[in-house]
Amino acid sequence: MSAELSLSKYESLLREEQNRLQAELAELGYATATDTGLIYDSNFADSSQVTAERGESEALATKLRQSLADVLSARSRIEEGKYGLCSVCGKEISPDRLEAMPTVTTCFADAKSARN
């Protein structure tokens, strides 16, 4: 497979992931980066339940936003010609690793050494 076809495949995967994450954020009421989420009824009888639900919603939105930022960063690396290159050593990241985690920024060896 040529490098151009490979990049096209990853670009497609990343675009699909971006759309999925944006849809999930919109479903939670976080359509934009400045949205504060769903509006909860302040007259609801169990305010502790509302607080808990809001906390869960905000935690999930934070994770989704980080994932979206990772996807956007990966798409930028494709445009810059740096996608698939380890940010630590500069070597190519294995296609298997990119297939499993298209937003990854390090090769397996550098990811492993960072954990130690």
List keywords for this structure.
116 residues; single chain; 4 helices; elongated
**Number of helical segments with 4 or more residues:** 4
Series of secondary-structure elements, N-terminal to C-terminal? HHHH
Outline the biggest β-sheet. Answer: none
CA(first)-CA(last) distance? 34 Å
Tell me the number of structural domains: 2
From the spread of the alpha carbons, the general shape counts as: elongated
What is the C-alpha radius of gyration, as a whole number of Å?
18 Å
Percentage of residues in DSSP E strands: under 5%
**How many β-strand runs?**
0
Spans of at least 5 consecutive residues with low confidence:
none
Helix content: 55-70%
Mean pLDDT: 85
Helix/strand-derived class?
Answer: mainly alpha
Describe it.
The chain is elongated and about 55 Å long. The two termini are 34 Å apart. It has 116 residues and is mostly helical. It has 4 helices and no strands. The mean pLDDT is 85.
Could you give the topology of this structure?
Blueprint: H1 3-27, H2 47-80, H3 95-100, H4 108-115
Give a short overview.
The chain has 116 residues and is mostly helical. It contains 4 helices and no strands.
